[in-house]
Amino acid sequence: MKIVTTVGTSLITNQLKDNEVKKLYEVLKQKDFSEKKMFELEYKNLKEVLTKKIFLNEKASAEIKSIIKLKDSFADKSFEVELIATDSLLSPICAELLKSLLEKSNIKVNFNKNNIIEDLQVSDYAKYKKGLINLLNRLNQIGNNGVYFDNLILNITGGFKGIIPYLTIFSQVNNIPLYYIFEFTGTLIKVPQIPIKIDEVVFDKYWKEFYNLNKNDTLDKSDLSFDFLRENDNLLEIEESFVSFNALGKILWNKYETTHFIFYADDNIFNEIEKQNDIKRILSSKFKANVLSKTETKGEHLVYDDGNNSNRIFYFEKNNEYFIYKTFQNHDLYEKYINSNTIDKESFIKSAKRRKFSI
């Protein structure tokens, strides 16, 4: 189990009665992480001062208090903590100190440069919007694009409060437990899960445009249809002639994409797949996740080999999309086909239609 914990600055602000801490805090408090080299000495000095002053106890910071309580709540499970910092100098200092403190208590902690979220800061709204997308991308990476969401917990006790609404939506949409400490009592609160059903019609209708937008991050308006822009303005960030996802759009699209396998097949192949229960199961459960490790090259064919059975899927890729042109559940028929058939990819692409299986 992985406890993803956003990191604020309470490890520092709780020590502002110390004049040396306060002096260094004032120098660093509005600086982006990209400015670290300019303030390397102050960064190092503040970290050293705090290291001497701070110990692992619930009064040290909101993050420590919440992690200790979560550890007690899940005492029967092994877990690690993933620390997420903002694009600042103070939040990473706190994350580095937290990592050191927690590891002394044999708590496994991960914090690296990928967990300092670029542009996630309060002084520039345009950067903040980009930072939200970067944060969501990082959370998806940590959860392996939905594969490991069942193994995540979000702890939003500390950190920049401007991200809480979006982390709440992210957790609700992806059914990830969300916790925080109630500041006046120190009680650990679990946010109840709301039964959410996402209307997928709009994603089915404009799948290609959503897919291209996600792949490119930003597109020109001219690359997108008028109807797409008009019907989905609540999911988009539109600035002058440029279009990108807003945070809500990113959350919902990622959910749609990670819970469906999209491929192309002509009517004959798809009708055959509908009769093949094992092939349908593979496409719905593991083809997308295992295609790289289970693909073999057989002459001109790429073949998904399901292992110690007769299930085989012939496919090719174009522009990161899968085209499935033959499937088998019978080994003899598979051997006969592979030794006597070729595939005209361009003709198949023209006849293929978009198909969708829920994962």
3D architecture notes:
43% of the residues lie in helices and 20% in strands. The strands form 4 sheets. A 6-stranded mixed β-sheet has the order 3-2-1-4-5-6, sandwiched between helices. Helix 7 links the parallel strand 4 and strand 5. It is elongated and about 80 Å long.
Mean pLDDT: 93
CATH-derived architecture of the largest domain: 3-Layer(aba) Sandwich
Number of strands: 15
Q: Mind telling me the CATH superfamily name of the largest domain?
A: Hypothetical protein VC1899 like domain (Restriction endonuclease-like)
* Strand ordering within the main sheet: 3-2-1-4-5-6
Number of domains: 3
The CATH class of the largest domain is Alpha Beta
* Global morphology: elongated
Individual helix count? 16
Binned strand content:
15-25%
Our Rg estimate from Cα atoms comes to 25 Å
Largest sheet: 6 strands, mixed
Give the terminus-to-terminus CA distance. Answer: 22 Å
